[in-house]
Amino acid sequence: MDTLKYAYGYVRVSTDKQEELSPDSQKKLLQDYAVKNGIVLLEIFRELGVSGRHADKRPEFQRMIGMAKSQEHPVDAILVWKFSRFARNQEESIVYKSLLKKKHHVDVISVSEPLVEGPFGSLIERIIEWMDEYYSIRLSGEVFRGMSEKARRGGFQARPPLGYRILHKNECPVVVPEEAEIVRTIFRLYVDDLLSPFDIARHLNALGLVTGKQKPFEKRSIEYILDNPAYIGKNRWNRTESGSKRIKDEDEWIVSDGPQEPIIAQDIFQAAQERRQKEYRPKGARPASTCRHWLSGLLKCSACGRTLSVSSHADPKSGTRYIYFQCYGYLKGKCSVSHNISEKKITPIVLESMEAALQSGIIVFEQKKNVKDSDMNQRTLLELQISKLDQRSERLRAAYLDGIDTLEEYKVNRQMLDNERVRLSEKLAAIQKTPGETVSPKKMLERIKDVRDILDSNEYSMQEKNAAIKTIIEKIVFFKAENRIQVFYYYN
Fold it and tell me: Do residues 329 and 477 both lie within one domain?
């Protein structure tokens, strides 16, 4: 019996104006190809109105790649209508196809562009990719020129910021009174009350207010509002690099008078810009190691669960550098409880906790299995494959109930799954099952002792100590009010 093959489908359209097949038409072609070639189509990923130039801008594409790369090897192929649906950037196309094929044995198949086997087929595939990228570059250049001209005329071509809303397509943004009041409050707190951006974020979050995207405020969202000239009736475009958040040189920006009603007075906005400029600190190139500590990444806030980030401050008189930990959420204005503590205070607490476990011989820990492709036994693999068949069966049933598959298609796919289940179950029954080893507390304590010796030694770097302690501790929850910790040990 031939091994059953599974695949994901990927459907993408850039805009509703381009001469492309509709999402439903693309899906139908993928389903027809799968049935004709005896392939079970587990899931179809869809992205509408998304460019294929940059993979990191396509969340469904990234989710599909991540699932295809997983250890259980869920699929053997990814089906697309054309290779241009997979990627329009030849470099990214080659990288992702190579990653899937060489490391995970997953093929990318264009159902409308069949390729011959061998070097000639690979050459044809590269030519198709080059033509797709050339077309995309030409199209993006024309789009950029059109958008630049619209920006110079004051046209609004982005999602309006907090305080504005576009009620009808091609109309100018109108002021949303309740949101505009939030914007005015932000400028007042910054200009008059001299609050910092993250203090403003904490204040707004405490009041239960949210951004235009219905998310809690952060330091960076406050800074974006303070810097946005839309609030004085200006439109700004081409400020950041396409595909990244890097800010371009100011002479590349296009700033013009916009049609929207100003929310902030010119003098207040200017006062905010002057303070922003005065407090601006460029990102330094300091190596991460200068701020790292062997507890980095382990300490967690008891209030919100976020990691305590590390910072260092130098005494201006003595030059001595002190290390502190603080909740990352608190720094971003997302947590209302400060968990600030110095390295000198938290280090003894952690070491004493480890020493107490060693002295008492009492340790609570979680035993974990570190399963790798190289040493995963056949029994585990088969059990994993059978469990995945249950999930696939549920997906097929859902596809039928949602009207994606016909009853006949559902029966065919279900029969293929049942046949595969029988084959795997027979192989599993023939394998001698062996119970897994249970780790004793003594073994766990021996590991803790080894790590404790590393932490006490001067022969190891901060990074090596950090790597060592992370082999036995998953996280350390810090309770600021009670000045105590809870250590979560594990044995891998």
Answer: yes
